[in-house]
Amino acid sequence: MTYVLATLAGAIGAALGWAAAAALALLIGTFVGASNFEGALGMFAVWAIGPAGGLIGLVAGGWLVLRKRGHRSFSAVALRIPLIVAAVAAIGAGVLWYLYETRPNLGTSSSGTPRLDFEIRLPPGIAPTGQPSAIRIELNTERNRMPGQVFDKGFRQDGDRMIMAGAVELHYRSSWRLLEVTMAPGEPARIFDLKLPSRPRHMKHFGPWRRVDFIAAGSEQPRPAPASEGFEIRTRVVYRDVELVKENAGEKR
């Protein structure tokens, strides 16, 4: 119980010490007229001075509890303080990892927003009748709706079938994702259940072809697509930073 209480006191002391040191640094900086251009003073106070105060508060909190619990000699405290510091650091790392893993947004500042590349294979004898911009692509999730696009040069023949390629951005985690494709105004929407994980990883290659899952005409509720619906899709998720690393590695070979 001593170590539990000491760890708890150390965590509280670290938070209070960080806040106090940052506030003091900000106060002193303001008093002496330090520049706060674009929040530079605040950033310095929080991220340069704050950690020092946090470490002092952590050690002080653990020391107080150890002293109260009978560990009064310097050697007894000195041997136990590193364990408390390590425990608080491990808890902090675990909290940060949890927050990172459960964040709603996909992508990071380095990777940017990931995108879903898709290829849709049309039934034999079917071809777009208008411009690619007339084809309506929409990604529906539990968090948002996102328009996509078919590329202007994204059409090619595959035997007697045409394939059209496009992309849509993936902004959020979601337990389900439906890609809605409407070839032209007045035509029914073909809806594909993408069956992606909540936080999909980068995919080097396209997955297998899969048939359309639902069809919706006008304001009707979507219904399962009949076997005669020959629309198919295959997809891959792309994180731009991973793609750039692989492209650069390929150029160096």
Comma- or semicolon-separated keywords:
253 residues, alpha+beta, 5-stranded antiparallel β-sheet, 6-stranded antiparallel β-sheet, elongated, single chain, 11 strands
Explain what the structure shows.
With 253 residues, this protein is α+β, with helices and mostly antiparallel strands. The chain folds into two domains: 2-101, no CATH class; 115-252. Helices cover 40% and strands 24% of the residues. It contains four helices and eleven strands. It has helices spanning 2-32, 40-68, 74-101, 240-252, and strands at residues 115-121, 136-141, 145-147, 149-158, 161-169, 177-182, 189-193, 210-211, 214-216, 223-224, 232-238. The strands form two sheets. Strands 3-2-6-7-9-10 form a six-stranded antiparallel beta sheet, with no helix packed on it. Helix 1 (2-32) crosses helix 3. The longest helix has 31 residues, at 2-32. The radius of gyration is 28 Å and the shape is elongated. The model has no long low-confidence stretch (mean pLDDT 89).
